[in-house]
Amino acid sequence: MNYRSNADLGGREGYGRVVPEPEGSSFHAPWEAQVLALAVSMGYTGAWNLDMSRSARETLPDYSTLSYYEIWYKGLVRLMAERGLVSDEELASGHALRPARPLTRVLKGADVAAVLAKGSPTVRPATAPALFTIGDRVRMVATAAPHHTRLPGYVRGKQGVVERLHGVHVFADANSQGLGEQPHWLYAVVFDGSELWGEKGYEGLRVSVDAWEPYLEQIK
Amino acid sequence: MDPHDLEHGDHSELAEIDLRVRALRSILEQKGYIDPSAIDAVIDTYQNKVGPRNGARVVAKAWVDPAFRNWLLRDATAAIASLGFHGRQGERMIALENTESLHNVVVCTLCSCYPWPVLGLPPVWYKSAPYRSRVVKDPRGVLREFGVTLPDSTQICVWDSTAEVRYLVIPRRPLDTDTLDEVQLSMLVSRDSMIGTALASKPDANP
């Protein structure tokens, strides 16, 4: 039950200045582009889903010391190793040493444009009416989830107002654990800066978070 | 990459990760898990085809075409798709219009969610701990590091992309741009202005 995300950074102190970067190159070294493309290709195989890959990355023990594409590389290796798709010996030798495992599908060059243009929509048909409506005051659940979640720590237990309904979406918490999609209504919930950070100095700040229905509690 | 880094011993680390990634690619190719032409095609897409000029076209059209602007604010996914931009990491889009009284800023505090079809891949700062940790708490301080100072009377709304909805900021149209056409206007729209960490450029600032 010990789940620790190293990626939940909202509101944390001590990270210093933001360093802007001119518009231009997508990658800063050729290996970064390779990692992105390998991760996209392997993600397409269906051996794991998007939420599992986020979970694999955010729980890397050395997350905070890695560059962005190092995180992607290590997350990818981890997902494949856990499924027996590659072994440590193979990674050390740089050669395939065991037979390939069967995959549901492989991304072909000729299909890339169509696959990327289609994406992977997470909207699903509603099977129940939404419990909340625009303007409702809600409180976010206060306890930390013992698994991958998309409720950031800085809004746990905080009160906000439902500002938008996004429809019904695949529930990241369930999908990341291999429990199926379990779609739920998704809302944009808006918080006042003073509710999140304290009474003084946060006037005129609002923060919106996209939150699935199980994250929301009614305020009586 | 910054040559300065190389002098400080990062060269070996860089070489090491480069070798590791090459090894991984070889293994996956040998096992038939990947098609090398697909790897090339994915890189080509995000290196050369998809980037913030797409989003700039959306913004410029919204500035000149009120019907498109209304459609964009009502159903951004469909309005943006009508210009040919859709797909991975932009499956469901929302457009946020900046006004005199409200300035919108987009972040993903949990990872790096970003609207790929209209902006391409995110810049390093967007994925970095300083931006992700601070912009939800001190957006004015972060904006100052981008050289942007907003009046105290302007509200700031920060949109944390915590699910599969992606946000595109529509910056305010600069004054004195009535004579510019859509293509000229799109050149005033920077990537950062569509994230909310910059304003659209003034026409004279853009040769």
Compact overview of the structure:
The complex is a heterodimer of chains A (about 220) and B (about 210). Chain A has about 220 residues and is of the alpha+beta class.
Architecture overview:
The complex is a heterodimer of chains A (220) and B (207). By secondary structure, chain A is α+β, with helices and mostly antiparallel strands. Chain A has helices at 30-44, 50-58, 68-82, 88-93, 112-118, 172-176, 193-197, and strands at 123-124, 137-140, 159-169, 184-192, 205-212, 216-218. In chain A, 40% of the residues are buried. Chain B is mainly α and 207 residues long. Chain B has two domains: 3-48; 51-205, Nitrile Hydratase, Chain A (Alpha-Beta Complex). Chain B has helices at residues 3-31, 36-49, 52-64, 66-74, 76-81, 116-119, 124-127, 129-134, 139-145, 182-186, 191-195, and strands at residues 93-97, 102-107, 155-160, 166-170. In chain B, helix 3 (52-64) packs across helix 4 (66-74). The two termini of chain B are 28 Å apart. At the A-B interface, helix 1, helix 2, helix 3, helix 4 and helix 5 of A face helix 1, helix 2, helix 7, helix 8 and helix 9 of B. Strand 5 (205-212) of chain A pairs parallel with strand 3 of chain B, so a sheet runs across the interface.
